[in-house]
Amino acid sequence: MKIGIPRALLYYQYYPMWKHFFEELGAEVVVSPHTTRVILSSGISRVVADTCLPAKAYMGHVMSLVGKCDCVFIPAIRSLKAKVFNCSKFLGLPDMTRAVVPECPPILSIDVDMNKGEKELWREIDRLGRHFTRNHSKVRQAAMSAWQKHLEYCRLMVEEGLTPPQALERMFGLEAEPEGKGASKEKALPTADASGQAHIAVIGHPYILYDHHVSHRLINWLQQHNIRVHTPEMLAAEAIDSGIGRLVGQSYWTYEYEVVGAGGHYLEHDVDGVIGLVAFGCGPDSLMMDMVRRHSALPGAAAFMNLTLEEHTAEAGIVTRLEAFVDMVRRKKRRKETCA
Amino acid sequence: MRIGMPHMGNLHITLKTLFERLGVDYVIPPSNSQRTLSLGAKYSPEGLCIPFKLTLGNLIECAAMGADTLLMPGGNGICRLGYYAKVQQQVLREIGYNAEIVELGVSERKLIGFMQMIKRLSNDASWYRLITSFRFALAKLHALDAIERSVQKVRPAEQVKGAAQELYTSAIEAIDGANDYASLKKIKKSYLAQLDAVPRQSRANPLKVRVIGEFYVVLEPFSNLDVEVELGKLGVEVRRTTFISEWTKFSLFLNPLGINEKERYQRAAMPYLKHDVGGEGWESVGEKVLHAGEDYDGIIHLAPFTCMPEIVAQNIMPTTQEDIPVLTILCDEQMGKAGMLTRLEAFVDLLERRRRARLACNNVRRAYGSLLRD
Known about the structure:
The complex is a heterodimer of chains A (about 350) and B (about 375). Chain A has helices at about 10-25, 35-45, 55-65, 90, 95-100, 120-130, 135-160, 165-170, 205-210, 210-215, 220-225, 235-245, 255-265, 285-295, 315-340, and strands at about 1-5, 30, 70-75, 75-80, 105-110, 110-115, 200-205, 225-230, 275-280, 305-310. By secondary structure, chain A is an alpha/beta fold.
């Protein structure tokens, strides 16, 4: 059986785990291609206008999988921790996809809700595994080793400071992506003077940060301009928890750590500037990024810039703002160093 | 201590009664206006929905009137609502008010917790006083909603446009002034009778439309630009499920007993949406499915712009097999009345044509049915 996984939304967080799980159970995994203008606009044509950009891209990815696989894996992740909730669009993702992409192959889904306890999660995993085998222990084994794979993936990012695409490349070797328009081939310049190098953290959801079409290759741009880029995935759990504690006390959203947690940490440690990437219409982010922005106004916090992305955002506009921000961060850093 | 709370429909009348009887100093913010909205929008993050902006405007106005304890619905839902109080508290602090926001947990659905909070706010009033005041406040709420239901029926048929609305306004005032059960009952009875006596047009069968959607924008006429009144002017009868009295009845009293009013809608939505997506998203889909099979001509779906649950619902609703025309109206601070009216007029035209076509079709079937069968 061929299982399609759309290269959007949760792909960036859980792909190694999913791939491993399905392959252990004897299925083949197909990933949709990188986001292109065609994929995005086909997604946009299906959903109502005020759906957020990542969800539009997701529908495009599902449509690009039609005919290439026997079923598509679309999980409904309700909650990863008791009393911590997820955005409605993640909860309704399988149903929404079925409604707007009627030609979609059968949908394999799993309902993850930690409010109901771990036992219920295992039952869900069993239900998902039953599509492949009747053997419960085999499903369990596959799930356990998939979890190990996930931990390995996280370790690569935290300990070696890799971004998710780099970590995926390291793990599977074939993630190198075709270069998009306007992006020069050159890799990050070798750091001539590592001491004077500016450090900038880019915070936001992985599906915005690492989708090169959506983010206009923002991270590559920064790296090419001799900036050390930090991302939320590189932080250990403790740093993130203390960041959340400082800003909002207790997390409310499932993916709060990558915005509020990372923002809370980076505004006070490690970096000279923080860039918050938000997709227009993102419900949770409209509040979370605002919390980070408010915190950035406190004395002593790193410089902060909020960039909102949508399908009309042009690369030139982003680059102009980035240039200004980077100049400002560098000048600030220089002045601080001369003062010291 | 001075208490304030944002507006939502006629809720302030109930609260005023409750707090007056408990001897708590309660301020009612000026009713929602462009000023409230601009004030709220000015200090809100841009991507937030109109309920946030309006309630923030109300809270700021309350604080300006000297309120130091502000009640704000909140709690752990899946929608952004649970986060509002936190952000609003920060905004208030930043613009220099020391008022403290107390979150009213609406999703926990516990009468006891709610009562305990009122008790705390009312400087530890006795339980007897608390319960009697609460009961009377609820009675007012029910009276208000009963009159509103009747107004909804009279509006489309009245001969002089605006007569029902005028009666409704004065009824609200009269109920606000009522001091005991007897006078409340009398007021309710007299206004219901007056509404019944409003001269009506002979056209017997107005179009019937169901208003569904997000709780706040359905209940707060300012946020939906008085969509019900405008529909009434166009000669359309409006019905809706969402009333504050219904909400209190179920979430405070019946839900703990295991009676769930929404189950009907949730079960209807099941084939299309299997999970609760927060807010009223699930119920919106379910209501569409159910009302398509009832004698409604159309559905008006109200949702705040960027409302996450309603976006999911909006994406799913057009694909259900049960077919009924749905007009989704997104409410935000950019909305203009003329634009909405144009859309309503077009929608009503469509419904009328549809109804005529259906009648004609039925007539043909009745006249030639026997022939067709042979």
